[in-house]
Amino acid sequence: MALLDVINLSIHFGGVKAVQDVSFSIDAGTVYSVIGPNGAGKTTLFNLITGVYQPTRGDIQLDGQSVAGKKPNELAQRGMARTFQNLQICQNMSALENVMLGAHLRLDRNLIKAALRWPSLKRRDAELRAEAADLMRFVGLAEAVAARADSLSYGVLKRLEIARALAMKPRIIFLDEPAAGLNASETTAVVDLVRKVADSGVTVVLVEHDMKMVMNLSDRILVLDYGKKLAEGTGEEVRRNPEVVAAYLGAQA
C-alpha cells in the first residue's frame, strides 16, 4: 500500500483552477519530486496536501485514511512535516532552539509543572536539546550548535530548517525548493542530505527547479503544467516525454 494517495485533487480560487484533478501515489521510503514551469501549481499542491489550503474537490489519504481538510498541526501529529520556499527561521533564537521548536508536539505543556519547574520537565528539556544537537550533526551543522540563527548563512539556514522538520520525527517530509538560492557547493550538501534523509526511512517529497538535482535524487517524478498532471514516471521517462519537453522549452523547441 502507498504511504500517500492523492485522488482527483482540485482547488479553485474564484475562476482560477490552480490545481485540477491531480492524482498520484507515493510509496514509503522513496524520493518523489514535483516539477513544472513557474505557475504550474507545485507549491499550491504542497499547500493542499499539508493542510495550508482546503481542497475544492478530491481526497488525500495517508496510510489509507483520508486526511483531506485536516489542519497542519493535525497532519504533523500523523507524521507529516514540511519546509517552505521562504525561510521560516526565528532569527532571535539560537540555531539549537530553532531545531527544538520542531519537537513542540512532543512537549509536556502542563502550566503547573512549568511554573513549579518540575524535575521531569527539566530532564525532558535536556533530552530535547540533545536530540536537537544530534539532528544538527545529522544535517552537517555540528559547528553551528552553539550559534545564533541570525549569524548563519542562507545555505546553512536551509539545512537548519530541514533539521527542525526532522525534529517532528516525520514519516513523510515535504521540501519546497530546498536548493533555491544556493551556490553549487551548498546545493551538493542539500542533495547529499536529502539522500541521507531518504536512506534513514523518511519519505521525501520534493519541489525543485534544479533538474540535475531532481534527476539524481528522484525515484519518481510528477510533472505539472497549468495545474494539471502532464506526466509521471522515472527520471528517464519524464526526460524523454515530448509533452514535458514542450512545456519547458516550448513546442517549437
Write a concise synopsis of the structure shown:
With 253 residues, the chain is α/β, with parallel strands linked by helices. It has helices at residues 42-49, 72-77, 95-101, 111-116, 119-138, 154-166, 184-199, 211-217, 235-239, 242-249; strands at residues 4-13, 16-26, 31-35, 57-62, 65-66, 80-82, 172-176, 203-207, 220-225, 228-233. Strand 7, helix 7 and strand 8 (203-207) form a beta-alpha-beta unit.
Which descriptors would you attach to this protein?
single chain, 38% helix, Rossmann fold, six-stranded mixed sheet, alpha/beta, 253 residues, 2 domains, 10 helices, four-stranded antiparallel sheet, globular
- pLDDT averaged over residues: 90
Provide a count of the helices. 10
**Overall tally of structural domains:** 2
Q: Can you tell me the CATH architecture of the largest domain?
A: 3-Layer(aba) Sandwich
Structural class: alpha/beta
Distance between the termini: 40 Å
CATH fold-level topology of the largest domain? Rossmann fold
Basic shape: globular
Q: Biggest β-sheet, characterized?
A: 6 strands, mixed
Strand order of the largest sheet: 6-7-8-3-9-10
Low-confidence stretches: 110-116
Task: Write down how many β-strands occur, each being a DSSP E stretch of 2 or more residues.
Answer: 10
Beta-sheet strand percentage? 15-25%
- Could you tell me the radius of gyration in angstroms? 19 Å
Name the CATH homologous superfamily of the largest domain. P-loop containing nucleotide triphosphate hydrolases
